[in-house]
Every structure is written in structure tokens, then in C-alpha cells.
Amino acid sequence: MWTYDKKLQYPVKIARPNPAMARLIITQFGGPDGELGASQRYLSQRYSMPYDEVKATLTDIGTEELAHMEMICAIVHQLTRNLSEKQIKDSGFDTYFVDHTIGLYPTSAAGNPWTASYIQSKGDVICDLTEDLAADATKRKKTMKVSDKHAKKLHRQV
Fold first, then answer.
1. Which whole-number Å values give the CA distances from 19 to 44, 88, 89, 93, in the listed order?
2. Global pTM value
3. Domain range list for the chain
4. Dihedral (C-alpha) 148, 151, 153, 157: value to the nearest 10 degrees?
5. Could you tell me which residue, 155 or 79, shows the higher pLDDT?
């Protein structure tokens, strides 16, 4: 059980919508290396760990990934609120919008819905921790790629 403080540790305040950017950032929520998968990976693997310290660490990391997911969702929500029909169509956000409107749905930038096949939980300490290291390295590389490409645009909107 956790105590939940109902505010973001790092508040997200985006002034102008940008659905094209939201289409890319949403992969950090539900893409193959996104926060949803990361949280589920750690929180699932913790149960089979033979050491209490490792269980506690995986619980802490999984919980932190949920907090990251909350920040990503806040960003996507703010980038897609109050869109005009023209903005939706011109940005290519219309294919997402037709199914989900501005609801947050875990998907990759390519439009593929999140699936549990993105994660592994084998019940073997070495396999699971190796999976975690590989997944974190991939996620970090993707985050930097998305961040570098769009940080300036996002910063100007704040």
C-alpha cells in the first residue's frame, strides 16, 4: 500500500496544444519502452525475487515508473486539450482521435496499442535483472531521442 500525494512532483504546464508532438510523446506512455511497461515489469518481477532487498528495490522502481507515467500522461493531455478540428486533422492526430478523442490510451507513436508482450517476468533473478537493465538502456536512449528532438519546441510552449 502506498500513500499518494495528489499532485505532480514536477508540475506540467503547457500553454499551447500540439497534437503532433503528443503523437510522439505518447510512446513514452504505452510504447514498447514506455512507462506503463516499465512499471509492470518491475512490479511483476518483485514477487519472485528471493531477497527482500531486491523486492523492495523493484517495488520502489516500479512505483517511480508509475509517477513517470503520470507525468507523461499530463504532458499528452495538455498537448491535446481544446484542439480545433483543423489542428486534429493537420497534425495527423485524427487517426488516434477517432478512437480515443483526447482520452489517454497506451499506444506507441506508430499507433500500436500497449501489450504485455513488451515485458518479461521469468522468475529467475539473473534473467529478470538483465531484462531490466536492457529495457532501461533502451528506454533511456529513446527518451533522449524524443527529448532532444522536441525539447526546444516544448520549452517554448511552457
1. 33, 7, 10, 6
2. 0.83
3. 19-157
4. 170
5. 79
